[in-house]
Amino acid sequence: MIRSCVIETKNNIDRESLQKIAHLARLEMPEFAEKEMMDSLNSVLTWMEELNEINTDNVRPLIHMSLEINSLREDKIVSNISREQGLRNAPKHDGAYFCVPKMMEN
Fold first, then answer.
1. Cα–Cα–Cα angle for 25, 43, 29, nearest 5°?
2. How far apart are CA 13 and CA 37, in angstroms?
3. pTM
4. What is the 3-state secondary structure (H, E, C) of the chain?
5. pLDDT digits over 24-60, tens only?
6. Can you tell me the distance from the alpha carbon of 52 to that of 7, in angstroms, rounded to the nearest whole number?
7. Buried b (16+ CB within 10 A) or exposed e, 6-45
């Protein structure tokens, strides 16, 4: 079953909507950039409205973006370097593992 994705964009992006989007995206939006960003977002929404007008009833969804086929290799376990060689340039290690600063509490 193919689901249709219709985006309703009857309203343009206003300053309040832009600030809400910036907040949700955790972006700082300086006042001098607001007009340019609103114009850009409104341009994208206008383009989406144009795309919504296209009849895609008989179009199969894409699975891949190109017809290229990946040439995959067989997974083989190989030892390229020894553990000692791997740990040789580590700033801190215990002989078997890298030692790194604790980042999270339990």
1. 30
2. 9
3. 0.48
4. CCCCCCCCCCCCCCHHHHHHHHHHCCCCCCHHHHHHHHHHHHHHHHHHHHHHCCCCCCCCCCCCCCCCCCCCCCCCCCCCCCHHHHHCCCCCECCCCECCCCCCCC
5. 999 999 999 999 999 999 999 999 999 999 998 998 8
6. 7
7. eeebeeebeeeebeeeeeeeeeebeeeeeeebbeebbeeb
